[in-house]
Design goal:
The chain is mainly α. Helices cover 66% and strands 9% of the residues. A two-stranded antiparallel sheet has the order 1-2. A hairpin with a 5-residue loop joins strand 1 (26-30) and strand 2. The longest helix has 22 residues, at 2-23. It starts with a helix and ends in a 5-residue tail after the last helix. 7% of the residues are buried. The chain crosses the membrane at residues 49-72. Keywords: Membrane, Transmembrane, Transmembrane helix.
Length: 114
């Protein structure tokens, strides 16, 4: 008797999960035998990687333009001044450090800048 109760409870849980999933939307499919089957829509990711990727590329491009226009020596002095400041300035100095990608892009766009 206990086994039947366990099987019943697992079926109820599965049906409740399916009901909750179908409340967010479903797709109706017609099978080859004429049976209409409803399947819950897959939850689409609301958070995509593209905005984050664009943000990172934009920030690296910004750092590269600043590095190319100011010069490597002056840029490193300004970052060193930030490192000596408050906690927020130290975080800014860590973020604004000239990484290899920034230096590479700055070398490429340096001759183009006035």
């Amino acid at each position: 008797m206990g086994e039947h109760t366990h099987i019943f409870q697992s079926r109820v849980k599965r049906l409740n999960r399916k009901y909750e999933a179908m409340s967010r939307g479903y797709d109706a499919r017609l099978q080859s035998d004429g049976l209409i089957v409803l399947k819950p829509r897959r939850a689409s990711s609301r958070l995509t990687i593209l905005p984050f990727l664009l943000l990172i590329i934009g920030f690296v491009l910004f750092k590269s333009v600043v590095l190319a226009s100011v010069g490597a020596q002056d840029y490193s002095e300004r970052v060193a001044r930030l490192e000596a400041g408050s906690t927020a300035e130290q975080v800014g100095a860590f973020v604004m450090q000239a990484d290899p990608v920034t230096q590479l892009v700055a070398d490429k766009i340096g001759p183009v800048l006035p």
